[in-house]
Design goal:
Blueprint (H helix, E strand, L loop, with lengths): L6 E7 L4 H12 L3 E10 L2 E7 L9 E3 L9 H5 L3 E4 L3 H4 L2 H12 L4 E4 L10 H4 L10 E5 L5 H5 L12 H7 L3 E5 L1
Parallel strand pairs: 1-2, 1-5, 5-6
Antiparallel strand pairs: 2-3, 3-4, 7-8
């Protein structure tokens, strides 16, 4: 698919974290993306950065303290993809979350939960568009295992290493923590 326009991405965080910086750096490295990031500080204050780069990477980085979270369906439609961080239920009211759900289901918009479950407690609006079901708690010292699909995938074919793929995967260090 050939796209003449830049992909417009919105990154929304209510609880910014160090890893957000790396996501934004990666997104902004793509010259085909126009990245807007909005950090929710409190109900009266947001911090926004809109980066529109020219092909020679000399375009401006604009900080817009007056830019607010998208609150209408038309405002959501301005973006091709919306990345949601933590505590999004603090940023958007229930009716606005319903608009986000419609943005995905009716308008074909894309949403990425880039830091896991984006809310605490119960949010039926976000639960309807979540790609996974979150369990309670975490698992510690868990090792990877290949599924049947993984065993058949060429991505895990380490034939030249002299060991079976399953053996190599089992020899990897345990994960410190995995969210259920």
């Amino acid at each position: 698919r050939v796209i003449d326009d830049k992909t417009r991405v919105l990154v929304v965080e209510a609880r910014p974290h160090w890893d957000s910086k790396f996501l934004l750096r990666t997104l902004r490295a793509d010259t085909n993306m126009e990245v807007t990031s909005i950090f929710y500080i409190n109900p009266d204050k947001t911090f926004a950065v809109v980066e529109q780069l020219s092909e020679d990477r000399s375009g401006p980085k604009t900080m817009l303290p007056g830019l607010q979270m998208p609150r209408t369906r038309d405002e959501l439609r301005k973006y091709d993809c919306i990345f949601l961080g933590k505590d999004i239920d603090e940023v958007f009211a229930s009716d606005e979350l319903k608009l986000l759900q419609e943005y995905v289901s009716d308008d074909g918009g894309s949403v990425v939960f880039f830091r896991g479950k984006p809310y605490e407690g119960n949010s039926p609006e976000l639960a309807r568009i979540e790609p996974v079901r979150w369990g309670a708690g975490t698992l510690a010292d868990t090792y990877f295992e290949l599924t049947e699909e993984g065993k058949a995938s060429p991505i895990f074919d380490y034939g030249s290493r002299g060991k079976a793929s399953e053996t190599i995967i089992r020899e990897l260090p345990a994960m410190t923590s995995i969210t259920r």
